[in-house]
Specification:
By secondary structure, the chain is mostly helical. Helices cover 38% and strands 0% of the residues. The longest helix has 17 residues.
Length: 99
Amino acid sequence: MSTTPARLVRQSPQSSAPISAALPYSWGFDAMLDAVHETHRRFRHGAYAVPCPDCHAPAGELCLARRSVHSARRQAHRDRPARNAQTPVTAAVASRRSY
């Protein structure tokens, strides 16, 4: 064992730097994000259901920023009124029965 106290041990600048909390880069994660955005775009889910007021991309198309949706497009999606009224569960069950 060393008799040198731990606080006097010299460290290189790299080892004393705080460890980043970010995830390490992964090609699989990158491909997954691309697939998620493409699926949402294709089926017009989420923010892809409305046109982008910033870059004027039509609904169902990616924004000009790659793998990113402009905040104005997300806000337009949130502000959009719901198109369909929810059916009560009892009405849905009753419509499936045949008498």
